């Protein structure tokens, strides 16, 4: 769903119905810093920070970012530290606290289950992010957009209060050369870290091959899978084989890209199906195929409880009502190289006219790549940064073509856009699955909005 769309409010609303509510763990440190700078209007960030178990962390974060009454509308946000392979204490503290807050608030005032979703491609914040979520008692960790074989073992070690590490992908690394991110919860606490509940781990996969790899070769127990089709929102797995584009410029998916559910069933682990399952009958169909249930994202992304800015929700719902919705699976937009589904909305990054005057930059840095410098140290580059900067760092010009600043675009989608000298308020980039065409189906007569609970009623066939 992007960054901050499936926020604590939405996850709480879903969990209160007896389903698994999942918060997005993407870029939460930057999101927390900006929520505080707009004044934390409902006081929920400060409320959760009062429960943060490490002394002094909350006070430092508030001193750095909280602005009583909020910043002036024309003032830019103060930037939070950029993610790097060995981050400093300020980034670590902000990341741990941000993930703690999101899960703490999502779990508050009910006994339902809450998960957190991470992207394997965003590696630098992974360890402190997971630890923060576990401090708040997260029930499930979901991860896709890569092969997260190391994560089950990380969950085991963090639950025991032990130091952890994950191998980092570094472009240009020499044969046998390895680079790691590390995190020590004891160092963070300044004392022996507490024993924590080990959350269940669900790998997000697009093929039986990946599911088998995770089940057999992960560092610890895999508890199940989300099997995601190419119509789901956000990042999609690339088509198998050489990339082919249709006449509209979208990747062509074929029979080889359909997950072999029989092989996944043979693993004996529960799995959920995802991608255009937001309609009655789909749950029954999934269960007939052997699935435990379904994962639904797009239907919830535009409900009242989601983090999407109300104006963008309204536009999307109106387009659905009139049958004019269009989602473009962009093969180039994301710096990850994965196809990325973009909802076409005027005044957003999908609008060539609006996007024309935007100056390229990289000041959030969550999708930067690590690369090996000539002296053996690690540098960072992003295909969406200024072309001359990317090339100066050894990147190829061709890699920059068509790239969008996904980090800033997604944060803009939730109403926390940066103020730019060139264009004013930065542009949103709205991602959605193909099922966004039909979100108007959740509206009751005379209504222009809908609630998460109404989506669930509809999916369970409880609506007349």
User: Tally the helices: what do you get?
Assistant: 17
Low-confidence spans: pLDDT under 50, at least 5 residues? none
- Radius of gyration, in angstroms, nearest whole number: 21 Å
Q: Looking at the chains present, what oligomeric state does this protein adopt?
A: single chain
**In which order are the strands of the major sheet placed?**
1-2-3-7-8-9-10
Instruction: Estimate the global geometry from the Cα principal axes.
Output: globular
The fraction of residues assigned to DSSP E strands is 5-15%
Major β-sheet profile: 7 strands, parallel
Briefly note the structural class of the backbone: alpha/beta
* Average predicted local confidence, pLDDT: 94
Counted beta strands: 16
Q: Helical percent range?
A: 25-40%
First-last Cα distance: 28 Å
Descriptive overview:
The radius of gyration is 21 Å and the shape is globular. It has a domain at 1-228. α2 crosses α5 (89-107). The chain contains 17 helices and 16 strands. The chain has helices at residues 8-15, 28-37, 44-49, 57-65, 89-107, 126-135, 151-159, 185-189, 208-217, 261-265, 282-288, 298-301, 310-322, 352-355, 387-392, 406-413, 452-459, and strands at residues 21-24, 114-119, 140-144, 164-167, 170-171, 180-183, 200-205, 224-228, 271-274, 293-295, 327-330, 340-343, 369-372, 378-381, 419-420, 424-425. It is an alpha/beta fold and 464 residues long.
Descriptors:
464 residues, alpha/beta, seven-stranded parallel sheet, three-stranded mixed sheet, 16 strands, globular
